[in-house]
Amino acid sequence: MAEADSRNxxxxxxxxxxxxxxxxxxxxxxAKSAALxxxxxxxxxxxDTIQAANAQDVAAAQAAGLSGAMLDRLKLDAGRIAAMxxxxxxxxxxTDPVGAVIERVERPNGLALSRVRVPIGVIGIIxxxxxxxxxxxxxxxxxxxxxxxxxxGSEAIRSNRAVHAALVEGLAAxxxxxxxxxxxPVTDRAAVGAMLGxxxxxxMVVPRGGxxxxxxxxxxxxxxxxxxxxxxxxxxxxxxxxxxxxRELALNAKMRRTGICGATETLLVDRxxxxxxxxxxxxxxxxxxxxxxxxxxxxxxxxxxxxDADWDTEYxxxxxxxxxxxxxxEAMAHIGRHGSGHTDAIVTRDAAVAERFLAQVDSAIxxxxxxxxxxxxxxxxxGAEIGISTGRLHARGPxxxxxxxxxxxxxxxxxxxxx
Amino acid sequence: MAEADSRNxxxxxxxxxxxxxxxxxxxxxxAKSAALxxxxxxxxxxxDTIQAANAQDVAAAQAAGLSGAMLDRLKLDAGRIAAMxxxxxxxxxxTDPVGAVIERVERPNGLALSRVRVPIGVIGIIxxxxxxxxxxxxxxxxxxxxxxxxxxGSEAIRSNRAVHAALVEGLAAxxxxxxxxxxxPVTDRAAVGAMLGxxxxxxMVVPRGGxxxxxxxxxxxxxxxxxxxxxxxxxxxxxxxxxxxxRELALNAKMRRTGICGATETLLVDRxxxxxxxxxxxxxxxxxxxxxxxxxxxxxxxxxxxxDADWDTEYxxxxxxxxxxxxxxEAMAHIGRHGSGHTDAIVTRDAAVAERFLAQVDSAIxxxxxxxxxxxxxxxxxGAEIGISTGRLHARGPxxxxxxxxxxxxxxxxxxxxx
Lengths: 419, 419
Description:
2 copies of one chain form a homodimer. Chain A is an alpha/beta fold. Chain A has 14 helices and 16 strands. Chain A has 2 domains: 3-226 and 395-411, 3-Layer(aba) Sandwich (Aldehyde Dehydrogenase, Chain A, domain 1); 233-379, Aldehyde Dehydrogenase, Chain A, domain 2 (3-Layer(aba) Sandwich). Chain A has helices at 3-25, 29-45, 47-63, 68-74, 78-92, 132-143, 157-173, 189-196, 211-220, 243-255, 276-285, 294-299, 327-338, 351-360, and strands at residues 101-106, 112-119, 122-127, 147-151, 181-183, 204-208, 233-237, 264-270, 289-292, 304-305, 319-325, 343-347, 365-370, 387-389, 397-399, 405-416. In chain A, the strands form 4 sheets. Chain A has a 7-stranded parallel sheet, sandwiched between helices. In chain A, strands 5-4-3-6 form a 4-stranded parallel sheet, sandwiched between helices. In chain A, β14 and β15 form a beta hairpin. The interface between A and B is large, with 60 and 61 residues. Chains A, B: Keywords: Amino-acid biosynthesis, Cytoplasm, NADP, Oxidoreductase, Proline biosynthesis.
């Protein structure tokens, strides 16, 4: 599609989204919930259609030689479709932040001010192969009163269309405008560019996918972006760490699932910690490749040589950079230099050291005696997440419904003129 | 200055600002307040030096033929310097948002989560002729724990240097790092470009000045911007408006000060409102040029013809576009099409109509029976303001200390690994 055509397409979709957003903003919570429940039911009812569309995507992807991991992300079986519908129903059960009064102020002149949560407006979601994002992200945006413009990957287009058609049919039957959740009908890159340039039309873009996608979105966007590029997370085993806890948390933080953004990528170990050999041995035995300098190799001979680039590498794999440090200040300085501001943890029995770490480490999530793998909206009790943000404005860490809202100031007077 | 030199300059200043910001983030509220009070005193002590520097700026500006309004904005007399110092002392007395716990969550697995306010980090302020912004903005940023990089206009450079030198001397004597508030030493446009492109180095930019400056910043910035371009505000006189209140509020909203962003630019009058002639006559007698169509001219003969462009024009002058409408829906549709999302007001005795207006008009500030000229951080009880934002993310409306903070998630565990 030509660039100008893409811009026109996105401008048209955005205008319809804005109209839908105005209607959504005025919908009571229970009406939004009811529409989402109808959407969930429509997904269940369309399971066969969705699975047939998905089979075509999978066949095309296999023919194109896509990797096993990508095929797995693409594939929708009956269980995954049911889980997708359950996810939409779960969003319907979340507490709606819209309308909440953040603050009330009565001024001496009698003006009554209140700061009230309202939807953001029009949210763009740009994602890759997982077709469940169509339902998840659409449901989260709509529950917070926003219209969504979804642009999924070409490899999942048939699946996305089927999921989208079912979801919107249900939402509309439940009383939402049909433009509440729109799917961009084309999958070329120009449409992404048009979305990223749609300042004033799209209020925020959330990229969901690999680093290449997020980097492009962050580099090109003229609209605000909610995202994280890297999860270069650290776990620091302090001298006063409990050895058994340190071993369990290091193993869990690295090895529970190596491919998620909350996985630890660098282990910082205090020279004063007594359990280093046991921790490193446990990691090596669990199949983790350790990278460290000669001092680390002397402790754990299965360690391979570390390069400077390792400290800045998000492996998303069973690989761990290991560094010995002298005390919390060196650990925090390393995190400040090499971290991505996502999630960093300290393991220690020393509460004063822990509190200093929690206060001084400047990351979206800081943890004491817990696995970095807990960095997740569900685990934080948010019920779901649209993504995790390492940006410093608007919303930070796991973002769910509240991060999809903003506020307005309402001023009620009795005829006050300003002196 | 060459572009590469500007980039290096801003990169160097940003790195020093980041170091200062880490120290500021850890300063207790009382220590920040004490340093600001010392800064206020230093401004008072340096009043003669500042006035001498300002006299040079004013003389150069007069020689360059600057207009009277610009000269007035530039000029610092003893009273304005005292007011500037008082402003810094007033910021020192504000409640510090840093450290406030926004939310606490205890998870079933025992993890204790808290969401805690922290400074944003490094804030860039780009402003024009008013030298008091050097002190005001520097103080607000520092009180919220942020380092500030200030870039003032060339016409005020001597004044800005004198104000900055005194402020920083006081802040440093009071215990703040000297890099907490930095002034860009050059005033060419390349330095502004370098600040706007400093993604990851500067966390947010706030432009303070005319529309040309704000438009350039919004168009070029690769860093988040907190600003408003226009204050195209409406006052809607509903059919059920009290005629005397309508007259007073229309006069105040337009004429109290015509050059501020909270001034009303378009008056929407319901055809069912009985007091139209009196309101328009009062405005005309107060020296306001009225622009309207033949129907408006029939009510108030001093009205001149309105053009389509008027509905989208922020006059910032004693000029008012006037439109007759049939009911709140037409009024709200006009605001939705032509407003800038800054401040819009309804005057009515009908509470149900008012509440519908407050809910449906999608502006940063919506008002009922009050003058739009109250759109101001001081009037809102915020104690000061860094600016007013019409953006939809992070902060909206008047922004003071809280808008200069973000939050982080603190997770305290007892050894939890994620299942």
